[in-house]
Amino acid sequence: MASCQVPIDATGGVDLEASVSRALADVSAFIDPLLDRAIVATESSASRLVAALRHALLGPGKRLRPALVLWAAEACGGGWDDAAQAAVAVEMIHAYSLVHDDLPAMDDDDLRRGRPTCHRAFDEATAILCGDALQALAFETLAAGLPAPVAARGCLVLARAAGPDALVGGQSDDLALERGWMADLAGADTATQVAWMERVHRRKTGALFAAALELGGLAADADADELGHLDRYGRAFGLAFQIADDVLDAEGDEAALGKRVGKDADRGKLTYPTVMGSAAARARARALAEEAVAALEPLHAAAGPLGRLARWIVTRNR
Ligand code: GRG
To answer: Which residues line ligand 1 (CB under 6 A)?
Structure first.
């Protein structure tokens, strides 16, 4: 594919917030009917489970992961239709992880996306089953939604990102610290704590972002070089997102975020603002966003939305 500068700032003076909000709204308009249709297909199940699936999957999230899938496909010369079912599958894994993360046995949250969490709106058993169902549905959607030669590789990519070496393992490490099973780390020096946080977040949060980008690339028949550029972007993006998330948890607005804030500090979690200070955490997030933008340079001009998203995630308020 021809190499050219990515016009990340092609919006000129146009406000980044407005331009990314518009672009994410376009993604929602495209993907939400597909998410809805995926739930309709489960309607032979008990109506309470179907209602919980709707609550979890169709709630007003930012649809960042579908955006990464679709924009990665676009950046590699593909179209949204080629990548649509991969985008649905990744959002299903994300929605499941939020439902299970909010459970009383984990973070015990009652607010998510500005609404009661799944176990609050329904009950704990239904929320567990809802997460289980979303996980299975994600792989069914991906296996059926990509052409046969790439479907198996796509399922492998998503399974690794959702499994014990990534999402589940990262969550488990996070719990270990919070529950006091890693007492040594609490008294460790800053460098050790930062290295530990990066390992947790690369697995718990970053791996699903990276999988979204890879799936978009695969759906667009990207070559190894293009996948490499997306991977470098994804690594920097994932960490930048997480640092910004920590800062928002410490300083953000509950109404804008649609979830409880300050809970990391309450639970004694290690966060970037507590370990390195708020200003340093913001500076690191901004540097990572620029690293992500730089990784896109060899890609097609259509990588612009990915670049703008990287800059937006470190300045967002939601
Ligand atoms: C239960 C296996 C398992 C894993 C849970 C998702 C997760 C791992 C924990 C959620 C806690 C949390 C706030 C993590 C930080 C990163 C994150 C996933 C934030 C939420 O993602 P957004 O901002 O959410 O994209 P929306 O609602 O916009 O989709």
So the answer is: 61-62, 64, 97-98, 100-101, 113, 167-168, 171, 204-205, 245
Report the C-alpha gap between 204 and 189 in whole angstroms. Answer: 22
Q: What ranges make up the beta strands (E) of 21-145?
A: 111-112, 115-116
pTM score above 0.90 = yes
Distance CA 262, CA 125 (A): 27
Q: Which helix (H) or strand (E) holds 107?
A: none
Domain 13-313 has what CATH class?
mainly alpha
Measured distance CA(228)–CA(232) in Å, rounded: 6
Ligand 1 centroid distance, CA of 5 (Å): 32
Domain ranges across the chain:
13-313
pLDDT at residue 13 greater than cutoff 80: no
Region 4-15 average pLDDT: 47
- The SS3 call for residue 299 is coil
Distance, CA 212 to ligand 1 centroid (Å)? 14
Please check the confidence at residue 1 and state whether its pLDDT lies above 60.
no
Question: Can you give the length of the chain in residues?
Answer: 318
Task: Give which of 241, 293, 237 is closest to 8, Cα–Cα.
Answer: 293
- Atom 17 in ligand 1: which residue has the minimum CA distance? 205
For the cut 80, the answer to whether the pLDDT of residue 264 exceeds it is no
Report whether pLDDT(149) > 70: yes
